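Could someone model adenosine-5'-diphosphate with this protein?
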Amino acid sequence: MKKVALVFVVAVLVPSLVLAWLAVRSLRDQQFLLERQQSLLYQRVTDALAKNVSNQLATEQQKFSQLAEMLARKNPREAAIQFDNQIRQRWPLAEVGFSVTLSGIATCTLTCPTPTAGPEAQRFLTDNGGFLGNQESAEVYWNANLKGGNQATVINAKTDPQMNAAPQQVQVENSSVAQVLQSAQKISQTNQSSLNSQSAGLNFYAAKTKQRAVNPQGGNKQVVDNQSPEQLDNNLSKVVPAEAEFRQLIGDETDGMLARFLQNKLKLMFWHRLNNDPNLIFGAQLNLNRVIDGLRDLVQADPELRDEICVALLDDNAKPVTISRSGFQSNWKHPFVSTEVGEALPHWEIAAYLVNPASLTQAAHTAKLTLGLLIAVLVLAIGVGSWLIVRSLGVELKLARQKTDFVSNVSHELKTPLTSIRMFSELLAEGRVTEPAKQKSYLQIITAEAARLTRLINNVLDFSRMESGEKKYNFQPCDLAEVARNAAQTFRPHLEANGFKFDCALPDAAIPVRGDGDALSQIIVNLLSNAEKYSNGQKEISMQVNRRESPLPYVEIKVLDRGTGVPRDCAEKIFEKFYRAHDSLSSGIQGSGLGLTIARQIARAHGGDVVYESREGGGSCFSLRIPIRGETA
Ligand code: ADP
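Reply:
Sure, complex below.
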């Protein structure tokens, strides 16, 4: 038992409880997991949209290059003078067109637009004249996260005064800007004498990466103020600014985009180097509103996610320039997830906002509740299962012990009468007893012992039949008063021979029942036999047969003695198979523990019962109750 219990505890109970404990612990992370899952899903959406926006701008860039080539096909130099006018007429995105003639190593001449072209052109010249004429450097942007083979190291790094950062070295990978920087390095190395890098502004420095204008919350509900250094790092913009002059910026490239912030406003420019006249650069400053109009259709969530999220294109101040759900309001600076568009639109983001943020908490709550309930049910099932197993193990063990006792008890019970029968029959057979009175007494003992043996064997056989469900009853109308009378008459000589006073109160009238007379007689004999066995020297037994009318008519046969009685806590147990309240060893009374089990089973098969009550003044009172089926039944 101990071994089985140990194996059960080690192999089943402990692992189950550990698993349940782990499951309970994981409940706490449900909301985080759900948010993480959602953020991964929506992040894919914003990543794809940001890529689409970049691709769209690249397509427009290509269109611009083709247009520039077309306008310059006949006479590039003349086209350069009229480029502003021409491009604005043919390309709605153009706000101002410009052309730059390159000469020498670092000289540029801005051919177009002229200040007379209008206020827009005048403003453009004020903002960009120096930069496009290669007289001053300007801040440009590149994506610090681009991956690739070519690497350029930005040297002479210096601190951006606004960002208050320490000097740093930045790795720039495989981008046109990287090539620009490489060529710029070359220039500064080969022309040290003519170009003083400090004074001419040829110092390329990477300012410290700017903090993103937004703070995505996906999968991380911690507020902005409590961010760890790692989180702060994640929130740095991947688009980093660097100072460059126009010549260095374009390098040997054929076309490109230029993003500048002027008076805190983004200015986007495309430029193209003519194929047949590489010293001519045609460019255009784009009308940002029209660019945004062109992007409006792109900034849409997938149809199946439309009810869940609203996507928006945010400018560098985290203000939405276009959103997928009109009228949607949110804290724009704290999207659920967002992706930077890249160097074409520096610090612009594609952001996704939850349409119903409470639904996520609710879903997490429901998942938590369901899982919690499931765990509770499982733990309960494990608990109940364990209890049932332990209980059934206990019952089985008890039964096994009782069976062993039963075998030894029955062997003993068989042996005792056999010994008596053998001894007295030998005495008689050898003619050693000559007195007739003694002979009669010995013969009576032999008869009584043979009857006891028969009772025991009958009980064992009956029990085995009952256990296998093979016990058959011969139900027929019979008079229970007569059955009781016959049983008493059979047993009386034995009792009286042993000095018992046996009072028997039987009614004169018949008590008709429907039943198996022999089986009912067996119950009475078992009860009388027990009364004798457990008399404890008080040789006084009585039997009463009474008819009762309430609640339904039944007959009650009481067998009373003045013996040891049954201990109170065993009153019901004595009807269990093999159970003995009086242990053979301590009491010296032999028994199989089957008599009352069989008696109750027979009584119940007749619709009645056998019950025990302690008797007032000491002793036992066993009552057999059988329903009366009808006077003529
Ligand atoms: P057994 O063969 O042991 O007598 P029974 O099933 O007839 O088996 O009885 C079960 C137990 O009930 C007995 O072992 C005894 O402890 C108790 N018992 C039965 N009859 C009496 C009685 N008349 N007085 C006291 N105890 C009794």
